Amino acid sequence: MGDGKRTRDEEFQSFVVGRWPRLMRTAFLLAGEQHAAEDLVQSTLEQVYVHWRKVGSANDPEAYVRRVMINAHARRHRRRLKEFLAPKDDSGVLREVPDTDDRIAQADDRGALLKALAQLPARQREAVVLRYWEDLTETQTAQAMGCSVGTVKSNTAKGIAKLRAVPGLAETVTLGGRK
């Protein structure tokens, strides 16, 4: 094995180890199920590894990987337009392990919020997850989703409005007037 390949493999491994929890959290929130999230992260990392030389030298490799994940999720969703990826019941769902920096993990009714989030249309869910869980700016979210800032604003507003309409979630979804 050449030194260049070994270095590339070590860089990729370091990236994956450092970003795994965040990638899994994002995938879980997008897919609505632990197994689907694991599949999404795995297929994303397979695609990224093939092009790691390009990805690793990008200004923001994490943003690049996030974009690949969003595109992979969108492709899966388009293929199964009628069959939504979120489970119909939560009997077989393994729960995400919250990290200490996750504001939503601090909510009393996290399960209810995740269930309501799973009911949002894919683009609204993507916008809400990227803006409020990943704490991206509107511009970063637009880049990750491959759309305009106006589309991000619209999808975020509609998604938050739907979450606020769920009984008992109004207090949880209050996000401090973020713009």
From TrEMBL:
Start and end residues of each RNA polymerase sigma-70 region domain: 21-80
Residue stretches making up the RNA polymerase sigma factor 70 region 4 type domain: 111-163
Listed Pfam families: Sigma70_r2 (PF04542), Sigma70_r4_2 (PF08281)
Domain of life: Bacteria
Keywords: DNA-binding, Sigma factor, Transcription, Transcription regulation
Gene3D superfamilies xrefs: 1.10.1740.10, Winged helix-like DNA-binding domain superfamily/Winged helix DNA-binding domain (1.10.10.10)
Family designation: Belongs to the sigma-70 factor family. ECF subfamily.
Protein name in UniProt: SigE family RNA polymerase sigma factor
